[in-house]
Specification:
8-stranded mixed sheet; globular; disordered N terminus; binds 2-acetamido-2-deoxy-beta-D-glucopyranose
Length: about 240
């Protein structure tokens, strides 16, 4: 409770979203199709993403020993190279209406995911929450609930696509300990995808995404899904284009 109070107070003082001042690296990771990918191996063409299942991964993260949350969005490695950097990705997600966690402080469990890129299970790199203008920022979302996502990068040597794998969902407020609302995985995914496709800007950079829907990557239903909330088996592949 004292943490939440601190969060509120600090937000009131700052009263504006956090800004990024340093310039990010604009390097695009080189793509190497690893030995597990003979079928798709093509070192001349950049591959937008690799199916994690081909190399021991899966489209559910590891929330607990038994359950996971769906990785329901991929931002393809064929996207704007800026968006594929850590810095650029944060920047881009602000254009979608997310912000970082309350003042960059993390609470809650970190999730692992196995993207089949040779890294095995790795911890999420990034968690963002819906941004509520104007004062409380993401601290408000922390209390009120709303949209959020976790992201991992597919850049192990076995499948170095540079793609972002995202688990998006909508959750209840903190009194319910941030559990997911009914149908919250599909709702959270659609919220992000709708905004990405519509297009938007942040600080003078404009983007718009193309979406390809896939229903052959994860089985629909609630088997193995955290909180027993069914998902519809659809995964959105976004290619984000800088305008
Ligand atoms: C690799 O991709 C390039 C560019 O898309 C294509 O021209 C070439 O035929 C592909 N090679 C193989 C072996 O699939
Ligand atoms: C993969 O990406 C993350 C985030 O950008 C970075 O910290 C890590 O060093 C990268 N791994 C490799 C092998 O490049």
């Amino acid at each position: 409770m004292s943490f939440l109070l601190f969060c509120w107070l600090a937000a009131a003082v700052v009263a504006s979203p956090l800004d990024f001042h340093q310039e990010g690296s604009l390097q695009v990771p080189l793509t190497q199709a690893g030995p597990g990918y003979r079928a798709t191996e093509n070192t001349t063409a950049k591959q937008g993403w690799f199916d994690p299942r081909l190399n021991g991964g899966r489209f559910l993260d590891f929330t607990t020993k038994k359950y996971g949350e769906p990785l329901n969005i991929i931002i393809s490695g064929l996207s704007d190279p800026f968006v594929l950097t850590d810095f650029g990705f944060r920047y881009y997600t602000k254009s979608l209406g997310y912000s970082e966690e309350c003042l960059g402080l993390h609470y809650g469990n970190l999730h692992d995911a196995d993207l089949g890129d040779g890294d095995g299970r790795k911890t999420e790199l990034f968690l963002a929450r819906q941004y509520y203008f104007p004062v409380w920022g993401t601290c408000w979302e922390s209390l009120a609930g709303g949209h959020h996502f976790r992201a991992w990068k597919q850049n192990g040597t076995m499948a170095n696509s540079g793609a972002w794998f995202i688990g998006a969902s909508k959750e209840y407020d903190s009194s319910k300990r941030h559990t997911i609302v009914p149908n919250g995985y599909n709702i959270g995914r659609d919220w992000l995808v709708e905004r990405a496709v519509k297009g938007g800007r942040y600080k003078g950079r404009w983007w718009k995404a193309e979406v390809e829907w896939r229903s052959d990557l994860i089985e629909e239903g609630k088997k193995g899904v955290n909180h027993g909330i069914a998902q519809d088996g659809r995964i959105a592949i976004l290619t984000v284009i800088r305008l």
